Amino acid sequence: MTDFANGDVWLVGAGPGDPDLLTRKAERLIHEATVVFYDALVGEGVLALVPPHVRMEPVGKRSGRHSKDQSSIDRLIVEAALEGEKVVRLKGGDPAIFARANEELEACRAEGIRVSICPGITAASAAAADLGMSLTLRGLARRLTFVTAHARAGEVLDLDWAALADPQATLAVYMGKAAAPHVSAGLIAAGLPGDTPCALVEQASLPTGGEFLTRLDLLPIAAKTALGDGPALILIGQAVGAAVLPQRAASIASTASLRQR
Ligand code: SAH
Q: What is the bridge-based pairing of β-strands 210-215 and 197-202?
């Protein structure tokens, strides 16, 4: 059973957007909360599950309100908990993956606040499901790497391309839309073939999203032309081709739209 007392904080995974992909535990926590601080990435269908008596506080960068920096968010959560609220911090996908969970955990623990995590379905899982593919392949894709291609403002993307350019890995690139040219160039320079299959999945799990198939050397143009404004995940590796291509074509000559909604 879920233990949720006054003054507790739960970091809750909201999943990729489709409310049906929320865990039962997450839904229970949302119902028991007195306040929900939520990210811009949290799906509207998920937010619609929050009961009307629960206070909703948008803290995300795309929420349309003034964007809050991480320390302000930490402070809001801590203050609410110290006031005796039951706090849900709702985050897109899984709260432990590229979601600044550690800052919030530390801020709570520093104040003696009980803080727990409820996992969620991460974007890579949802994107693979949309594509109808397995992220791992026996003998072909033995490693699955989650990497963020987000560089801090004013800094260049500094990733260990040699370590990432593993032909036996599937690479799931979060926040990679803007950095797609660097990802493509970096991996190719480190030896990954230009025809390595790639998929771009925008708004995974949602009817408004889309999936595009391309290859590593064409990734920059695909990311620029095929995608809209929504969050998008890039999947790179033989698992993409092995799972998706046989149904489509023998080779990818250019970017193909699998489903544009
Ligand atoms: N904690 C989240 C990731 C947050 S980082 C998770 O576990 O999924 C934000 C990035 O996640 C976005 O830039 C995008 O790359 C990816 N992302 C989140 N939701 C997505 C979705 N529904 N479809 C595609 N990518 C998504």
A: antiparallel
